[in-house]
Design a protein that fits this description.
Blueprint lengths: L9 E2 L13 E2 L13 E5 L4 E5 L4 E9 L28 H4 L5 E4 L10 H6 L6 E4 L1 H21 L2 E9 L6 E3 L4 E3 L2 E10 L2 E10 L11 E2 L1 H8 L9 H7 L10
Antiparallel strand pairs: 1-2, 3-4, 4-5, 5-8, 6-7, 8-11, 9-10, 11-12, 12-13
Length: 254
């Protein structure tokens, strides 16, 4: 993979999160040995936190929280894609990169998860949250997974979602004048809270059409960490991680 293993200490304000607008916190002890500031930047917005890759000009990961109340708003989708104001324009994708490219401007944090706030909805259209997706993936199997996660957010107390692209800058196809990496696959790492219990499950989905059951894409968080080269949910502590990250906790489908 392009990066050495990077430890992003993603913390939550509490186990039962009270608002989509409650930003995730990144632990201050992320060191330069694990985090190369010349190649990646952290962008914090109202509802999402982004680990943005300069070389691939898109996010390696986007983290946010989701629960039932976040899905009950009436914010309007305006399809106003634009550059992230917190990002230097030379490192951003543009409208021209996608024009007649054959790729959808796919959301990593879905717009449908941001309806509780118009500001959050608008920020989800920043190009820092957008990735080149095959239309058959974006409108098909990836959309199915996003819908399933929203069902779980209604069913359970809250979900910490980390989602992003599988990036290898020396291997990915490139798109447009901005030279955006076209991911071969996408992932989600989910930490589900319900009745004082925690559950984890990961998914890896290739960037093409599939009609397979979503369960066929499920992986353990430990497996996902090896693929993505990130450490997910370290604030849980080593003991709890070892108990819940080495199995696919399929019971959340029940």
């Amino acid at each position: 993979m392009f990066f050495n293993k990077t430890y992003f200490f993603i913390c939550v304000l509490s186990l039962v999160l009270t608002s989509c607008a409650s930003n995730l916190l990144l632990h201050d002890s992320v060191t330069s040995k694990k985090f190369d500031e010349t190649k990646e930047i952290i962008l914090e917005h109202d509802c999402i936190t982004i680990g943005y890759n300069y070389e691939c000009k898109q996010a390696r990961w986007v983290a946010y929280t989701l629960k039932k109340s976040d899905l009950e708003g009436k914010s309007q989708r305006k399809n106003n894609f634009k550059e992230d104001p917190k990002l230097n324009t030379e490192f951003s994708a543009t409208d021209d990169d996608y024009y007649k490219s054959g790729y959808d401007r796919g959301h990593l944090a879905p717009a449908a998860d941001m309806v509780s706030s118009q500001n959050c909805m608008n920020q989800s259209f920043y190009y820092s949250n957008i990735t080149p997706q095959e239309p058959s993936c974006n409108r098909g199997v990836w959309k199915r997974l996003e819908s399933e996660v929203r069902k779980w957010a209604i069913q359970y107390d809250s979900i910490l979602v980390v989602t992003g692209a599988v990036l290898e800058s020396d291997k990915n196809k490139r798109l447009g004048q901005s030279d955006i990496c076209v991911p071969d696959a996408f992932y989600k790492a989910l930490l589900v809270y319900h009745n004082d219990k925690t559950y984890t499950i990961g998914f890896v989905i290739s960037n093409h059409s599939s009609k397979a059951e979503l369960s066929s894409f499920a992986v353990t968080i430990d497996e996902l960490e090896l693929i993505i080269n990130l450490d997910f949910f370290p604030f849980l502590g080593k003991k709890e991680q070892s108990e819940i990250e080495n199995i696919v906790q399929a019971e959340i489908w029940k």
